[in-house]
Design goal:
Shape: extended
Distance between the termini: 11 Å
Radius of gyration: 23 Å
Largest sheet: 6 strands, antiparallel, barrel
Helix content: under 10%
Structural class: mainly beta
Order of helices and strands: EEEHEHEEEEHEEEE
Number of domains: 1
Oligomer: single chain
Mean pLDDT: 94
Number of strands: 12
Strand content: 35-45%
CATH superfamily: Translation factors
CATH architecture: Beta Barrel
């Protein structure tokens, strides 16, 4: 069954494998998530489920959000997210999804917001080369020319320039699960994942 979970990044560390090699890993706290809505092709045009994660107080949600969850007699959740499913997969409203669905050695895709680094220049943001540092050069980290003159008389859209770096949705594919702790809903993933510790992440089985 293809499954997706919401959770948080705890942090990075390293472990030793059976051959004594050091493996860098990221520890994730995933779920438990609750199925809050089921959509079918007959009624909605496609098959999907909506899951909720992170129980909060009623004051944290708007009336429409509360009404949506109260229809199914569910507690308020901070995060709701929808995932497409195969029509042959069966889910129920109120069903709990946790790390029991994952196995050691399985490959997963992880999506989250990358770490924001603020306003950055061309060398840091786009890996531009710098200008000469000697012989009277005044062009060290400046962008230089950004286009032609009279024709076309404008800067083309998409020009690589200084600006906001990071804080964008990033997806890392084909990451290997090293350990699964079903008691604490912990996943240990080989390699790094987007964002800082505490960042909200989505884990989906790789296709």
């Amino acid at each position: 069954m293809s499954i997706s979970l919401l959770g948080n990044k705890i942090g990075m560390t390293q472990i030793f494998d059976e051959f004594g090699n050091i493996v860098p890993v990221t520890i994730l706290k995933m779920g438990p998530c609750i199925v809050t809505q089921i959509k079918t092709k007959l009624k909605h045009g496609y098959d999907s489920i909506q899951i909720g994660y992170g129980i909060v107080s009623n004051k944290s949600l708007t009336q429409p959000e509360l009404g949506h969850l109260e229809k199914s007699n569910l507690q308020p959740f901070k995060y709701l997210k929808e995932f497409r499913i195969d029509p042959s997969e069966k889910f129920e409203i109120g069903q709990t999804l946790d790390v029991e669905s994952f196995t050691i050695g399985q490959l997963v895709d992880i999506t989250g917001k990358s770490t924001g680094k603020g306003f950055s220049g061309l060398q840091k943001r786009h890996k531009f080369a710098r200008g000469p540092m000697t012989h009277g050069s005044k062009n060290h980290r400046q962008p230089g020319s950004i286009g032609q003159g009279t024709s076309p008389g404008r800067v083309f859209p998409g020009k690589k320039m200084a600006g906001q770096l990071g804080n964008k949705t990033a997806k890392i594919k084909q990451l290997k699960i090293v350990q699964v702790n079903k008691d604490t809903n912990i996943l240990v993933i080989k390699g790094s994942v987007p964002g800082k510790p505490g960042n909200l992440l989505t884990v989906t089985t790789s296709k």
